[in-house]
Amino acid sequence: MPEPETRYSPPAFGAASETVLPPAYRQMLEDLLALCRRHLRRVDEALIGRAFVTAYIAHEGHLRASGEPYITHPIEVARIVAQEIALDDISVAAALLHDVVEDTEYSLELIRSEFGETIARIIDGLTKISGLFRSRAVTQAESFRKLLLSMIQDVRVILIKFADRLHNMRTIEALPPERRLRIAYETRDLYAPLAHRFGLFRIKSELEDLALKVIEPEAYRFIARKLREKKQEREAYIERFIRPIRERLEQTGLRFEITGRPKHIYSIYRKMRTQQKPFEEIYDLFAVRVILDVPESEGKEACWRVYGIVTDIYTPIPDRFRDFLSVPKANGYQSLHTTVIGPDGRPVEVQIRTRQMHEIAERGLAAHWKYKEGVETQNAELDRWIGWVRDILESRMEGPTEFVEDLKLSLYQDEIYVFTPKGDLVTLPAGATPVDFAFHIHTEIGLHCIGAKVNGRIVPLSHKLQSGDQVEILTSRRQQPNPDWLEFVVTHKARSKIRQFLNEQRRQKIEAGKALLEKRLERLKRPISDQELNRVAAALKFPNVAQMFYELGAELLKPEEVLHTLEQLERHPEQAASPPAELSYLEEARQESRDAILIEGEPSGRLLYDYARCCNPIPGDEVVGYVSRNGILRIHRTNCRNIAHLVQTEPERIKRVEWARHKDLQFIAGLRIMGEDRVGMLNDITGVISRGLKTNIRSINIDTQDGIFDGTIILYVHDLEHLNRLIERLRRIPGVYAVTRFEG
Ligand code: MN
């Protein structure tokens, strides 16, 4: 592509920005430079100016989905990098240029000759792999892997990527709904947890909120509104809570800042869902934070001193105490957390940390990177992050999409702290088992672990470890991983090593099976073609020839059966194929609730659809459609776990759907009710449902234990409004603690 290279010859900064940039853009450049001066230690203004002009020319004439000039995007990304991540001038320049290679005719070579190796390498890392002949899921996974690989060389790559994603999420409204959804899921399931893993708490929180706003706009708006409504009351309470602490702290002469801020919307949403509680019953909507301006060497001691003061004023709840001061989280987070009983008996979480700990808590990797800058000393924390990424990349033996799935799994989890018999501390994700622990210690120990002693007692391999456990692994030379282990391990390393072992074992069995059959046929002097092999495998109902070989090798299938089938096929070739019949399924899909939805804005017409059983959508829910293998469009709720995965891996099968105007139809929905197990409770509940709201009940399931009533009710409703009305009414029954929609 020689054309653009002649269009742009590197101008000296100053003259170029004067002649090339219209006044509005000159102003934007000035604003960006001002931002850099404010937040960065050192600013090469000429470099940023040149990058700005280059990006401006390269993207000239391109528009974003919103209709704005494309260049506004790289400029905003550069502003985020300068201000919110506060890296360095190189990153700001790279952010300005980050889409040039991917989206314009400018080549990486040009960037390299104009801006040097460092910037070129960062931009290369940020450029997606284009894959004309591969599926979207594979190219996505490969691009992601490339991003992580480049990050090992230069962490700025991933930091700029977060800024890029943040700006795209902030402006996502301009995209068509189905793309919005795909990007939102990817943000929620991959980028936000990854940002969390790298300790970028502020960016992670904003990404989560923006994703929720797309995936469940109603829930987002509801919580945002509630937070606004309660703002005054909340602030008055926080002030009341803080006042005595502030007074005591002032007497100590410590320099400090104390604030109370609401938690972000997504974290409240998650609490409501996991605790199955309405908004009003979530007490820890905010946290009070004490930040100390003390020399680093006195940091920990000062934090403990503040802890003493806080718990002197308010009674702490013992099992809510967390000491991330002595044992930082894997993402580097350090702080003291305690929950105390505040005025009116309300529990309040208090976090205590130093200024530097705070900066690391908010900006994690970025903060560490900044502290490293200019200094040649090693930064252990930074090395740990890079080591973590390297581990994930190196242990990968499976396909690219499994890699992304595994990565997601290993990103999600909370952490526990356990000990080796020698007392060494090991950090593992919550839910980790002795097998995870064993693989963490060494692959060989993992491959041969047969059991474990936890705190001196023998436990099974699937036992879930708890913080504080001391774990000793028992091994046996004869032990081997088995597929069941995959059901309970949670770490990426254990999972991929087990899979690697099983794949290798399977490969050996396939080889053995193949050799066995070949030997038998040789003895019979009967050659066999690939075609014949395929036909035999099909006749024996194997999905493929490899599976047949595997079962031969594993001695699950006798070679005689294969030979016999071969003989049969020779005699009656017409019996070879038998197509699978799934017609009954189609019939089942022909439900009465037709015409309830619009597909891509059109009536469904002759297209068959039905409702996913995993999430049971009802009119009023946010929904999306997925064309399943048998051609039926299945309607899921957008917050369904299953659909999030499908939107990522098979976007071509996703259809935009919405509810048609009111139809008097019946939909299945489930409710979970918890309360006191008192006389007449069931009667009151069914009374509200069937008499009060004239709703048909399909089934009721009740469990009572220790005076607690726990019921699941499946019923027929018209729409979300109907269901919500039911929930409201049921909550008012005396003795009912919680009523929630039953998921799955
Ligand atoms: Mn971009």
Description:
The chain has 744 residues and is α+β, with helices and mostly antiparallel strands. It folds into 5 domains: 4-215, Hypothetical protein af1432 (Orthogonal Bundle); 223-371, Beta Polymerase, domain 2, CATH 3.30.460; 500-575, no CATH class; 584-659, no CATH class; 667-742, ACT domain (Alpha-Beta Plaits, 2-Layer Sandwich), CATH 3.30.70.260. The protein is 51% helix and 15% strand. The chain contains 31 helices and 22 strands. Strands 1, 2, 3, 4, 5 and 6 form a 6-stranded mixed β-sheet that branches. It has a 4-stranded mixed β-sheet with strand order 14-16-15-17, with helices on one face. Strand 12 (597-599) and strand 13 form a beta hairpin. The two termini are 54 Å apart. The relative contact order is 0.05. It binds manganese (II) ion. The site of manganese (II) ion has 4 residues, from loops.
Give me the secondary-structure topology.
Elements: H1 2-7, H2 15-20, H3 23-39, H4 45-58, H5 72-85, H6 89-96, H7 100-103, H8 108-115, H9 117-126, H10 136-153, H11 156-170, H12 177-197, H13 201-215, H14 217-229, H15 231-252, E1 256-262, H16 265-274, E2 286-292, H17 299-313, E3 315-316, E4 322-323, E5 336-341, E6 347-354, H18 355-372, H19 380-394, H20 400-412, E7 415-419, E8 425-429, H21 434-441, H22 443-447, E9 449-454, E10 457-459, E11 471-475, H23 485-488, H24 492-523, H25 530-539, H26 545-553, H27 559-571, H28 583-589, E12 597-599, E13 602-603, E14 609-611, E15 623-627, E16 633-637, H29 641-649, E17 654-655, E18 657-659, E19 667-676, H30 681-692, E20 697-705, E21 708-717, H31 720-731, E22 736-741
Helix pairs in contact: 3-5, 4-6, 5-6, 5-11, 6-9, 8-9, 9-10, 9-11, 10-19, 10-20, 11-13, 12-13, 12-20, 12-29, 13-14, 14-16, 15-17, 21-24, 24-26, 25-27
The structure holds manganese (II) ion (MN).
Manganese (II) ion (MN) binds at residues 73, 98-99, 164.
